[in-house]
Specification:
Shape: flat
Number of helices: 6
Number of strands: 0
Oligomer: single chain
């Protein structure tokens, strides 16, 4: 077995042990509501949420998007993916905690729902939800 496989196995075992330790006392609770699924039961700390956001972005870009970008525009364009990091960091550091508190008070589970509640309008909720889907589609093209 090579050193790289040994590292993979050690990291996997450590990850499983940490997950088991973190899940203690929560056995059997499972996902019982939309809130549990969409916002981790509102039990996720700021650091864990930030790590999740960055990992989600980078896994999609690094493993899927960057290959297409390099194929279409050349290797130099791979640096463009790094341009998304500062806005994510800014959003997490300066906006996330404020929005989390406001959304919790209002019972919001998504940005479109939050905007609809702020403006007391189902139309705003619908428009932002549609824009969200459209912008993700355009980004994927």
């Amino acid at each position: 077995m090579s050193l790289s496989w040994g590292i993979v196995i050690v990291v996997t075992v450590i990850s499983v042990v940490i997950a088991m330790y973190a899940a203690r006392g929560k056995q059997g609770s499972g996902i019982t509501s939309d809130e549990d699924f969409l916002v981790a039961g509102r039990d996720l700390g700021s650091f864990a949420a930030a790590c999740t956001l960055v990992a989600t972005y980078w896994s999609g870009y690094a493993f899927i998007g960057s290959v297409g970008v390099a194929w279409e525009f050349g290797y130099n364009s791979l640096v463009a993916g790094a341009a998304y990091v500062p806005p994510l960091v800014f959003a997490v550091i300066f906006l996330a905690n404020y929005l989390k508190k406001k959304a919790y008070k209002m019972g919001s589970l998504s940005i479109p729902e939050y905007a609809g509640q702020i403006h007391n309008s189902a139309g705003v909720h619908a428009v932002i939800a549609v824009l969200n889907v459209l912008l993700m589609t355009v980004k994927a093209l």
